[in-house]
Amino acid sequence: xxxxxxxxxxxxxxxxxxxxxxxxxxxxxxxxxxxxxxxxxxxxxxxxxxxxxxxxxxxxxxxxxxxxxxxxxxxxxxxxxxxxxxxxxxxxxxxxxxxxxxxxxxxxxxxxxxxxxxxxxxxxxxxxxxxxxxxxxxxxxxxxxxxxxxxxxxxxxxxxxxxxxxxxxx
Amino acid sequence: xxxxxxxxxxxxxxxxxxxxxxxxxxxxxxxxxxxxxxxxxxxxxxxxxxxxxxxxxxxxxxxxxxxxxxxxxxxxxxxxxxxxxxxxxxxxxxxxxxxxxxxxxxxxxxxxxxxxxxxxxxxxxxxxxxxxxxxxxxxxxxxxxxxxxxxxxxxxxxxxxxxxxxxxxxxxxxxxxxxxxxxxxxxxxxxxxxxxxxxxxxxxxxxxxxxxxxxxxxxxxxxxxxxxxxxxxxxxxxxxxxxxxxxxxxxxxxxxxxxxxxxxxxxxxxxxxxxxxxxxxxxxxxxxxxxxxxxxxxxxxxxxxxxxxxxxxxxxxxxxxxxxxxxxxxxxxxxxxxxxxxxxxxxxxxxxxxxxxxxxx
Lengths: 170, 361
Ligand code: SF4
Ligand code: SF4
Prior knowledge:
heterodimer; A: alpha+beta; Alpha-Beta Plaits; 11% strand; elongated; B: alpha+beta; Cytochrome-c3 Hydrogenase, chain B; 3-stranded antiparallel sheet; 49% helix; 14% strand; binds iron/sulfur cluster
């Protein structure tokens, strides 16, 4: 009984175990697997990260078919933070694709904005639109691939035809 | 005798951490018959694993079968695929795998015991258990970068190393945890009221345990010495001196005691593993694609988990089959309810520590 009272008394004045997050900061430890950050200038557009990503949270959209210009899009709310994309990126050491050791802010009042998060996240302002915009992008990205493949095929055919006519002329 | 009344327990219930449904036929509070439905969280993971994912990253999917046993599923898959590809992980990687697996077991067991204490009426003990568990969660976050989904396994090794400072930190924290766990163990062992609530409830005899093929801490609480860690050589458990922990009482109380004993033993195993951490690489390269079939047995916190893999030389596997420990324990669970009071149903279910997201997948 006496022991119990001493224990309760001690507990009354000891520090609480819990952290009052989000009113207090709750720092992540060193090496925490957080947001994926991208640097377009270093990218060689090998598409390895897109192919490896388990939930498909990285998508490249081909915006200009003739020059094969691609835009990187990343959905931090779909990402499972596994870090597989950073593991496969051939330019990861230089800092093309890195994993920050901080969490992405939850999708609350506003969408997080950062140039390193890719194009789509910077184009949306209303958090309610993220899901819709992403599913539209998925369709668009797939179509752009098909169009690009089609364009390539035609280019190849044209070249072959040109070569043929050249041969015949000479 | 009163009339027969059907009492539903689950799929949503205040004392159930998992979506499982029991329909009890009761007569005067005594359960006479029970129907179980385990399929509430079916997500089609086995199908997705053989259609949508290549063998290199199917483990990211499989580890997400369940939060508690994520490392078990990673282990089951990787030990299997390494057999098919004929690669062997370096010693250091094996030790790191062992450390994470045991840390995972500790946090799972601590929460399971805390849950039993809670439904037995010890809310404070529940908080105590969860508070202690937080130490382990912090350690795991420190080593792997995430609290639940460690993703530390990779084919041919591990993805992250344990540095010297981290090793020291783990040791310090684990010694602190051991003190606390021993205190709680003492309480489970000697407290009179806790004993009244749990001793003799849902008794499983050794014969029954054998007959119904019970696995995990439930089997070991009945004196059946079965543990994949000792029977199946997948991690260097021999080298760190693993011993099977058993009791003979076979009731809810004994299950808690066995789990608590395993927590203490796991702490010892980790401490020994850290002291003897071999030097060297943490990863080796592999070549080729999986061909042929294989099976693996690994010990999840809840018992033996079985993996069957079949590859056909392409990037996508032909079959992935998982049999989880909770599934093996359902037949005896059904049997146990009959004849018990309805008020004891909660401690019985929770002493089994069921994991439905594993069972339904
Ligand atoms: S961390 Fe994983 S889920 Fe997130 S973008 Fe990279 S590969 Fe995809
Ligand atoms: S893997 Fe790296 S280099 Fe390749 S496309 Fe992705 S970000 Fe660019």
